[in-house]
Amino acid sequence: MWIALTIYGSAVIGANWFIRSQNRLKSRAVALTFDDGPDPAVTPAVLSVLKEKRVPATFFLIGEKAEKYPHLVRQILADGHEIGNHSYSHSYWLGFFSADKLREDLVRCSRVLEEISGEKIRLFRPPFGVTNPRYSRALASLALVSVGWSLRSYDTVTGSSARLLARLVSGVRGGRIVLMHDTLPQTAEALPSFLDYCRDKGIEIGRLSM
Ligand SMILES: [Zn+2]
Fold first, then answer.
1. DSSP state, 82?
2. What is the pLDDT of residue 14?
3. Of 67, 75, 133, 142, which has the highest C-beta tally within 10 A?
4. Domain 2-206 in this protein, CATH class
5. Which residue among the candidates 90, 155, 181, 182 is catalytic per the annotation?
6. Which residue among the candidates 35, 36, 105, 155 is catalytic per the annotation?
7. How many angstroms from the chain centroid is the CA of residue 177?
8. Among this protein's residues, is 71 annotated catalytic?
């Protein structure tokens, strides 16, 4: 029973088993979140769509990539979007890291982002949505708030922008936090039609604002 619950809690961020994540907005607006960037090919495309449609978003950045492409981080901020910590290494093994090693990885990401932005980083999204008790201790000690999602686009497994759009459109409801990735061309391709759909249906795109 314990093992089953542990696997369930670790894998399903909505379950809030180990850490409290914010998975919904309190308002009727929808929040857009993009993970795994900054990406030299796709982030600029996503930014230009957001600018054209005049909507805000939150980018959960990988520290290692932010260090490599600081101009993209500055561009995200200059366009009025929010940034958050998505770990430095985005290692598949983060969930198995010791408490010290995990904390070090998260600190390193915040440090890179804070150096570039001059802002205190408050938001965190766990890579792969996986959490465990070591995360809850590390996040508490770093005063990071974990943000989950309530509409997963599955853009990482959906190669076609048409199918991705269909999924986004069928799942979008007021209060939902949408998980996407600004590393995939299909995401940038589906985004304009998705935002037009929201506008036509009167669905407001808002900020995550904790
Ligand atoms: Zn990720």
1. E
2. 53
3. 67
4. alpha beta
5. 181
6. 35
7. 9
8. no
